[in-house]
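Sample pair:
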Amino acid sequence: MKIVLQRVSKASVSVEDKITGKIENGYLALLGISDNDDKEKAEKAVDKISKLRIFPDSNGKTNLSSIEIDGELLVVSQFTLYADCKKGNRPSFINAGSPSHAEKIYNYFIEYAKQKFKKVESGIFGADMKVELINDGPFTLILEDGNGL
């Protein structure tokens, strides 16, 4: 599992000019899934994200979690996080999860996140999506096996 996590003041995702998900004050999570990922890894990732203390407190220090600020979450599937660019100029995506497996884990990630976040919205798995955001900070983290997950 690979996640690019951005602290946002607002974010939205649309498919064919229709907004499918929209949040304010929380996280945009670009989520890549491999065939090695399962429900347990999804739960661990959501738990980690919900407890990360990267929102400012009253003194401006990054000291609060999304739970403490009633943060929202926008989840967008992004298999391209598994791009392998070692050879040639065209990325290979053989390390990305099969679509059927990845969609199942993506949907589970979203459902589990609804237990932890005030509001959870999402894109449409496999669709051509347009993402808009205001990155607050900017504050962006990369979470993957061995680095936060």
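The radius of gyration is 15 Å.
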